[in-house]
Design goal:
Helices cover 64% and strands 0% of the residues. It is built from five helices and no strands. It is elongated. The two termini are 41 Å apart. 2% of the residues are buried. The mean pLDDT is 76.
Amino acid sequence: MKNNSPRKKRDAGSIIFGLLIFLFFRIDSWLCSLPAWITLILHFVIDLPIWWFWATLGVWILAGAVRYIVIVFARWGGNSDEPPKENKNPYSKKNDDYYKQ
């Protein structure tokens, strides 16, 4: 059975690129990254170890990745090989005789 879908198969590169775009362009994602930036500032102000920054940044990326992967897998099954259903609504069907005039 041939798959004529307009969607392409996802590879690891597109998933990682999508994750970066997802993390960069969402305002709630930036708000969730605040602990990482605060620990970076505290590193320079009170000499907090830098690994606190990397740990909080890693948790932010991991949480974003989990959220993104859940969205990707939830949408993955949306493409089926079934033919489109016939439109049985008489008000939304195009009447060919009407449009030929």
